[in-house]
Amino acid sequence: MLVKEHCDILAPAIQNVNVSLSTGVFDNDWKQAIINPLLKKQNIDLENYRLVSNLSFLSKLVEKASRISVTQHMNQHQLPPSYQSAYRANYSTETLTLKI
Predict the structure, then answer these.
(1) pLDDT in tens, 69-83
(2) What's the pTM value of the predicted model, to 2 decimals?
(3) Domains: count for the chain
(4) Nearest by Cα to 63 from 91, 31, 100, 90
(5) Calpha distance 36→77 (Å, rounded)
(6) pLDDT per residue over 56-70, tens digit each?
(7) Which of 6, 15, 7 is nearest to 65 (CA)?
């Protein structure tokens, strides 16, 4: 429902992501981050601030789409080592222990 209502806004964003993935070019504007200090404790000391960088949503879309694409490619061609459990869906230290 949300996608149908806002397809006029989402279509150009999706097109930008597809162009970025097909050409291998990541727009320089998407590399810009807004850095905000976040207060950890109620104190004026500068050490109580944590810097949080906010990236554009397009850069996050490209990152997620490329991660999905690379993961699918690796799984289709059986590229991850059989004993690698980190960074893989449905794998854990327990499944690795069972393999060993």
Answers:
(1) 988 998 899 887 877
(2) 0.66
(3) 1
(4) 31
(5) 42
(6) 988 998 999 998 998
(7) 15
